[in-house]
Amino acid sequence: MALELRQQLKLTQKLVMTQQLRLAIKLLQLNRLELSDALQTEIEQNPALEEDFSSQEAVIENTASLSSTIEPTEPAPESDVTEKFKVKESLGEVNWEDYANNFDSNFSFAKETPPADAPSQFEFISEKPGLLAYLQWQLAHSNLDEEEWDNARYIIGNLNRYGFLEVDIDQIMQYTGCEYDDAEYMIEVIQDLDPPGICARDVSESLYLQLERMGKKDSLAAIIVRDHLPFLETRNFKALSRATGKKRPELERAVNFIVAELTPYPGLPYATDATNYIVPDVYVKKIDGEYVIQLNDDDVPRLKLSSAYQDLLKNDKTLEKESRQYLNSKMKNADWFIKSLYQRQRTIFKVMESILRFQYDFFERGAEHLKPLILKDVAEDIEMHESTVSRVTSNKYTHTPQGIYELKYFFSTAIPKAGGEAMAAESIKTIIRRMINAEDKKSPLSDNAVSLKLAESDIKIARRTVAKYREQLKILPVKHRRHAK
Prior knowledge:
485 residues, 10 strands, Arc Repressor Mutant, subunit A
């Protein structure tokens, strides 16, 4: 057969990752706070996209259009979850012409007079001072020469967020080139600063430094934190009594003083870590015996296409070709952004609606009645791909009558139950937490004892599985939960 080059037509189907599709996927996986930032950024970068301030009623109507009511119907077999509820859905279509409202070119915030008690821009600072800044401010009032300043900066720069020194004296000497006595002296200088207990190597030294600052370096509490901290952690008063030769009442007073007056992590109050607040993306409310789903549109601006640029494209015949292409591109991007945003809201709504159908018992009776659920179940229910459901449920939260939960919480693996249907792993975790909360603190339940108690309820899981769930619940082992008799 001879080799030759020739042309032919071939019709194929394939998925192309366009910029519009990338945008839709990006918006879909953003959480509530990230979405607000993305909207503001897009408004700043795209002149064809504007925030609509003209009609607050339209915002309310749009919010109401994305709501649904789910109520139980006549009892049905639990295996048929789709027939167990009837859905009253009011997902209305959006008229995209509503986004092309008139633009008021005379509108300006400069005409508004700020209130008299409005804060000045000078009352805001760019960065919150932390432990490092606080220590440097105190050292500025000390009589330190240039070499001592270099040593001090290196030492306080190696304090972790808890206020503990993460380098030893040999490392300080190697980096700064100072002598052993100079490094030891500078550590003592920093330990004399506020907060008490700072620049310690471990918790024991930190607690001892705090007692030393109080004038109690020779007290029973100082002996305990310096020499017998493991017995303090487990509240082992018998071992403390043997080690110190003191009686139990005296030991209890010393331990209570340590717990009430000292802090194991002196640097933690000065940590500058940002607090991430949870803002629900969707609300599930029970009204008149029916569950209503409502998306959280607070602080999400209502967007529209710029009427000024639309009129410019339509009426200005003198507009240059490059300018017209630029405006057309921005208008298309703005239109696609608005559609992608609305599609995101509809997808979240559909996923939450499906979760409510599958996990209706959870919303009625709590976490112990959570059923096994996987992404594939919801994806088949709403006729979408599993990856779409995964993006929707990541880093998004819902406010329910049972509390605030991440959407991923409702997806749990199945644990077989003898003589009955499988249970969700999260349900078993809830049962374990309840059992440990109700245990006798003087004789707490071991992992094996919890496993045996679960077996009495036909829930058969191994001891190591109980230990894994306990660690995920951040519950201490039995030896750390035991209180003195």
